[in-house]
Amino acid sequence: MASQDSSSKFFSAFSLVAAIGAAAVAKKGLNTTWRATTGKNPPTNPADPDVGLGEAVMWAAVSGTLIGVARMLAARRAAGYYAKSTGHLPPQLAKDGQDASKAPAATS
Fold it and tell me: Where are the transmembrane segments (predicted)?
């Protein structure tokens, strides 16, 4: 059990570092793309009333989506690396009922 706890902690730390790195890279790329597309710096605080509502909503939607996807991809890659190294998925990623063949039948 102690081995599983330490490998679980290792995976948590490893996936956290990967997600933070991926988010930083995504944000840098997003800032550059925003400047090239709009000719302006991205809003530093979209909640600021001086930032137009359309611009604030667009920034929140685009940045949230891209950073979230980058973090998810990094976490998946970390889980793949962990599984390849240990021969099994980390305990946090144990089967969670996503198997469609085991889902309850839909009722109408």
Answer: 56-74
